[in-house]
Amino acid sequence: MLLEVAGLDLRYGATHAVKGVSLTVGEGEIVTVLGANGAGKSSLLKAIAGAEKPTGGTIQFNGRDITGRGASQRVRDGLVLVPEGRQIFVSLSVEENLLMGAYTRSGAEVARDAEEIFDRFPNLEARRHAPASVLSGGEQQMLAVGRALLARPKLMMLDEPSLGLSPIVVDQLFDLIAELNAQGLSILLVEQNTQMALEVASRGYVLELGALRAEGTAEELAADASLVEAYLGNAEDAA
Amino acid sequence: MLIVQQVLNGLMLGGIYVAVAVAFTLTIGILNFLNFTIPTLFMLAGMIGWSVSFYGLPFGMSEPLGWIPSLAIGILCAIVASLIVERFTYRYFKAKHGDATEHAIPLVSSLGFLLIFEYMILIAHGSDPRGFHTPFGDLNWRVAGLVISIPQVVGLIVSLAIVAGLSVLLARSKLGRALRATAEKPDTAVLMGVEVNRIVPIVFIMTGLLCGLAGALFAVNYGEVSPFMGEQVGTKAIAGMVLGGLGSVWGAVAGGLIVGLTETFSIYFFGATSAQVTIWGLLLVILLIRPKGLFGHNAIGKGKF
Ligand SMILES: Nc1ncnc2c1ncn2[C@@H]1O[C@H](COP(=O)(O)OP(=O)(O)OP(=O)(O)O)[C@@H](O)[C@H]1O
Ligand SMILES: [Mg+2]
């Protein structure tokens, strides 16, 4: 397994956001984590990325225990998070945003990789030197993904990437996720767009109030309509 | 000619304010933190630079040359003091409470450090200003009826060169990019692999360097130091920073020079006691017309640590 999370626990003071969650992501897999607002999905991803300190449990990545490693070391290890709400640096240019993704790297390869991202996203290339604030929501999401790719990840975690995007852009985004996966990138995808997530993922987990309520193949989860009703709320509303 | 002479004097004085104003604007722009210790760093460099020279020149050096290591020691002390402030105000509260700037604590404790450092120097040297004759004091260049002090010109050039260097560093280097990203969204910068605890001290080193340099220049150019020398310069530098626009490095440069010119002309026309009234009056008028200052912008300093 590329990622193995065991019994992960996270508290913010009195709030118990993640309650003993265990999950795995295999090499080359797309795995999704589903759950309603406040279920603890973002907290889980932040703990895996090293941005929040878990109060219990272990995280193994690429065969090594990374529970005690800092966020920056995890990026170097190839574990990156595309955060909820994209979190583009609006005071930086489009190109500078991309280069921030390569903060842990150096050398001539970085510039070459940035050109590759620009080839992939001509819209970004066209506004390369403009402040990132001029980009549309969809373009900002592409920039956030491009920025994460510049770290040369083995596993990319995406936190609700489809949030607030138009249906056409959501389709493009899921195509991109599938394409990156086909090129060998493993993906842990948090979504409230249950249907789309289960289409692209091979396995999934359902989180409710911080605890795992269900897990299975994407087909199993998709077939279990009661599950969607009970734990995810109205997926259409959420998206 | 007298007017041209005043312009020159104003710019030289402004050069000192520029360095201190840039120090203020960097900590506000990048860390969202009004660092009250800045005036003390200025004072420390001046007082320590002078006292090393006064009580015994280092390495048995003789007068003119000996001032250079003395001032270097003064500047170094300002940088070390700045790092102490980072460690015990900023980092401490960030580690303990997750967010340093949401609380008034760093603000208040930096004010505490201002007084502690000031009174430590006061205990050591007494409160009287120390006037002295600097060996460079007579190095003047006389052209067309103007007296141009060479150390002051050198000081202004060094001050502007350091600010220009810092501004290029911020705009073009990887470190500068990371500092700007951290200023805007520290949580996201962490996800890129930025180690905020390593990057924040760099801002404090820059602060110490700028204030130390300004304090050293002030000491050699005006031949007088006192434990309170930082307060006057500090308030005028704040006026310069606000005039130029919070968080803008070139705004602080313009603001610092404008304050220097205003002060010199105010003294020339209305007498020595008029300067504060004129400077702060001008600031209020400019803020009424342009609330963001001359070069102010919105995008930075919104991030939380
Ligand atoms: N920094 C924080 N401090 C305190 N409580 C927090 C913090 N972040 C999240 N929480 C709480 O932890 C719980 C889980 O939040 P989290 O953001 O992980 O949920 P989520 O599943 O990502 O929700 P959403 O779908 O709205 O993004 C919520 O009750 C939330 O209020
Ligand atoms: Mg979330």
Please explain how this structure is put together:
- The complex is a heterodimer of chains A (239) and B (305).
- Chain A is an alpha/beta fold and 239 residues long.
- Chain A has helices at 41-49, 71-77, 94-101, 108-120, 122-126, 137-149, 167-182, 194-200, 218-223, 225-232, 235-238, and strands at residues 3-12, 15-25, 30-35, 56-61, 64-65, 79-82, 155-159, 186-191, 203-208, 211-217.
- Chain A has a single domain (3-89, 153-238), classed as Rossmann fold.
- Chain A is globular, with a radius of gyration of 17 Å.
- By secondary structure, chain B is mostly helical.
- In chain B, a hairpin with a 2-residue loop joins strand 2 (140-143) and strand 3 (146-149).
- The termini of chain B are far apart.
- The A-B interface holds A 49, 51, 70-72, 75-76, 80-81, 83, 87, 89-92, 96, 99-101, 103-104, 133, 147, 151 and B 174, 177-178, 180-181, 183-185, 187-195, 299-300.
- Adenosine-5'-triphosphate binds next to strand 2 and helix 1 of chain A.
- Chain B: Belongs to the binding-protein-dependent transport system permease family. LivHM subfamily.
- Chain B: It comes from Rhodosalinus halophilus.
- Chain B: The chain crosses the membrane at residues 12-34, 41-61, 67-85, 105-124, 144-170, 199-218, 238-260, 267-289.
- Chain B: Keywords: Amino-acid transport, Cell inner membrane, Cell membrane, Membrane, Transmembrane, Transmembrane helix, Transport.
